[in-house]
Design brief:
heterodimer, A: alpha/beta, Rossmann fold, GMP Synthetase, Chain A, domain 3, 18 helices, B: 4 helices
Amino acid sequence: MLNLDQYSSLGAALRDALDRWGDETCLIESDRDRERTRLTYSDFKELALPLARALEDAELHASERAAIIMTNQSKWLISAYAIFYCGGVPVPLDYKLTAAEHLQLLAHCKAKIAIVEYYLWRAMMQSPEFKNLKALVLVTEAPLSADLAGAFRWEDFRRKGNPIFVPRKREDVACIVYSSGTGGRPKGCVLTHENYLEQCKSLTAWYPFWPGVRYLSVLPTNHAIDFMVGFIGPFVCGACVVHLRTLRPEFVRDAFVRYKITHVSLVPMVLKNLERGVRAKFEGLSALKRLFLDYFVALNKSFTRGSPNVKLSRWLLPQVHKAFGGELVAIFTGGAFMEPSTLEFFYELGIPVANGYGLTEAGTVLTVNDLKPFRADTVGKPLPGVELRILNPDSEGIGEVAAHSKTVMSHYLDDPELTAETIVDGWLLTGDLGRFDGKGHLQLFGRKKNMIVTEGGKNIYPEDIESTFEGTPVKEYCIFAANYLWPEKTLGREILVMVLRLEEGQEFTTTLKDEIISRNRRLPDFKRVGGSLVWEKDFPRTASMKIKRAMLAEEIGKSRERTAVIEL
Amino acid sequence: MLTINQTLEEILTLAAAHFKVAREKLAPDDDFFRTLGINSLQTLELLTRLENHFQIELPDYELQGVSDFRMLAERIQARL
């Protein structure tokens, strides 16, 4: 891999990577069983530089922002590289947000350019906020007959000639990644080139890539994890990234075999789905075959107790490994609570699963299991260069996890107050509760902050969805994470609860419940409120009439039981 | 060509078979995440079955924001 210490920016490192690994395949893009694109590093460069030249002509200057809103595909990475080449700052936005949310964040980050997939652009054009959009927009894959309302076609946005590479310093801003805040206070994490280069260095120290690695990019590239392990990491090592245009489970399973995937990152929801599929296959085996399988699984388990041995596991359990392509080296997981039994299931089959922990504010990953030995009950040890502390530990040693590392973000965009609350004396306060065991492994026990993390790895902040319930015929309402009201020192049972203060004499009728359910359905499934609770007192408020959330939560937690929540 | 109601009826029948529930338990305006207790990944599994049945291609994004069978039928109808 490249020696990242000698680079001052991601753009510079990527530029060298494209020259160094010229003939290696860097990207494969597949749609169902059809391969759409296969690019070498040289091909990638040939596609990216004319785009960089056109961006240069469009006056994208150093430090100016260019948003990317696209599903995972080669155009995503080509666009990001072209932006880096001009010294610009990519702002990856979550493609699963609504058009109104996209427009809100484009305005918040003051994007000069926006590169948008056609179906998302179509939705944005219909949004009432569309008229306020100021960015120059490039639309990918638009049909030739489509009216793009003044936007340019990405495929045609090319200029001849050599663009000028704009150097950046390590402390300069590399990317702005929104960790939340679409409905309330946007949290744009400002990450520097130093953050990314250091993160890449420490991750690849434990889990190196090399030419020949085929990384399956399933998590959204706008997410900090995939940006690192599905773009920067593989590229600086000469590896290949495989994109799928459909993430249906059967095509993901096929991709493992077709492309002989070696590494993949999955959120718990996807890993559990894979587990269900494998278990169903096992259940279909005859009694005799099942007996043999169990015997070899037990044998594999005893041989890999100290550390994984994928070659031996492949030999012991060839059919299982064949179903995963036969070359799988590691599955990375994290982003949400992962049941230990799922991790154990895969590890016992000889498929190493490295469970980790991190947050966008920390530049992705803080801890990861080194598999020496495998542990299903922890999120691993701090990566090289990461210092962790447990603040104000209780009698069991559990307290808030704080992190100090060169990977921690610079600040939140345009929010010095929130930055000062989050980074104190150089330590990032994660809001997560944890404890170290005797072996230096971090175990997580819940959250101090009012938010939930879904199985799909999405962070949901109540403030971001409250506006959906505006107009609900009650006196007032407020949404909380259940674990914030009733701390449980555990993860996994995470739901949002809508606390309702009814009008004098009003009752919680079926009509009211249906009204809330109907509004709830306007939200994507992963953002929905799971239950409601009627509260008999007026909410405490500040002088400016803002709800004192912490005070209200404490009062509710003390006087009501979690069982009082009515399921929606 | 099928009418929207016929498309809807066929989707409900296919969904009932796919998720192994009685057809009469599913209604056009049901929120399928709640009725079937499934997540977004499991709804994606249904898409291939629908594609094969209706002989169309449905990109994953067509399911974005869709949570009931009627809306799903509209998306499919537009591609028939």
